[in-house]
Automatic annotation (TrEMBL):
UniProt source species: Mortierella polycephala
Pathway info: Lipid metabolism; fatty acid biosynthesis
Chief location category: endoplasmic reticulum
EC numbers: 1.3.1.93
Catalysed reaction, written as an equation: a very-long-chain 2,3-saturated fatty acyl-CoA + NADP(+) = a very-long-chain (2E)-enoyl-CoA + NADPH + H(+)
Annotated Ubiquitin-like domain residues: 3-75
Domain of life: Eukaryota
Name of the featured protein: very-long-chain enoyl-CoA reductase
Major enzyme class: oxidoreductase
InterPro entries: 3-oxo-5_a-steroid_4-DH_C (IPR001104), SRD5A/TECR (IPR039357), Ubiquitin-like_dom (IPR000626), Ubiquitin-like_domsf (IPR029071)
UniProt keywords, alphabetically: Endoplasmic reticulum, Fatty acid biosynthesis, Fatty acid metabolism, Lipid biosynthesis, Lipid metabolism, Membrane, NADP, Oxidoreductase, Transmembrane, Transmembrane helix
Amino acid sequence: MKLIIAPRSPKSRKFPITLSLTGTPADIRVETVQAAIAKQFPQLSTDRQRLTIDKVALESDKTLAEYGLKDGDSVTFKDLGPQISWRTVFLIEYGGPLLIHPLVYYLPSLFYGKDFQHSWMQTVAYWMVMLHFLKREYETVFVHRFSHGTMPFRNVFKNSAHYHLLSGLNLAYWVYGPWNGAGTALGERSEAVVYGCIALYAFAELSNYHTHVTLRNLRPPGTRVRNIPRGYGFDLVSCPNYFFETLSWLAVSVLTMSWSAHLFFAVAVGQMYIWAIKKHKGYRKEFSDYPRGRKAMFPLIS
């Protein structure tokens, strides 16, 4: 069959083109069309292609017939630009705090103009943050299986700003400052508060890791298979990983009582809630037997 690839921009010098594809609309998948475009234009890898019909993006594993396409029809092409793998993006994002926090913590004279002794609260907060992001790096390399292989390279700067600035420089500078140092009123915490925050943090981080392993095991290697997650945490909410991460940052926020930690907590939870609502709606739309009693992110609430 023949399929016309029309450009989204009227100024395109490469398109439109007509592809001659072997098979019928019921046999030919969208990924076959993308491969044919990449063969004709090697710089346009399949990851940077977006094909649409009436602004509806075509999924690579579906057939042309599923979108009602027939011989001689056309689809719209958009070049998404240079791509970067999501795994690399995550490594860059989480690597920022892992670099910034030790610099601020161990080199106070560089940031505050003097050396001083850190309080117990500051030391515990430091290791909470470091272990959290070390865990995230480990999960990125050994646990996560990504449904989308890449993202536009230009977005890496926007995505990294959240981690490098808010949970990196902002959190480190204001939490590890001399005003919270040993012997200061702001740095003092009771044993009950410190150990309570450590317990909440440990529970949340281990639970968050467990949910990530559950999600990983739902998707066979090299596939984009989606199934209904079940078990620990998932019986209550669609995104327990976000809920448990909320508890982790709540522990850091309560322990430090710093406005910078409160700010990051509010922004992070707000963003995770937006993601959770989107995923929750996606699950309910995709699976007719999806458990109706589940909430999106907060058990029994929303």
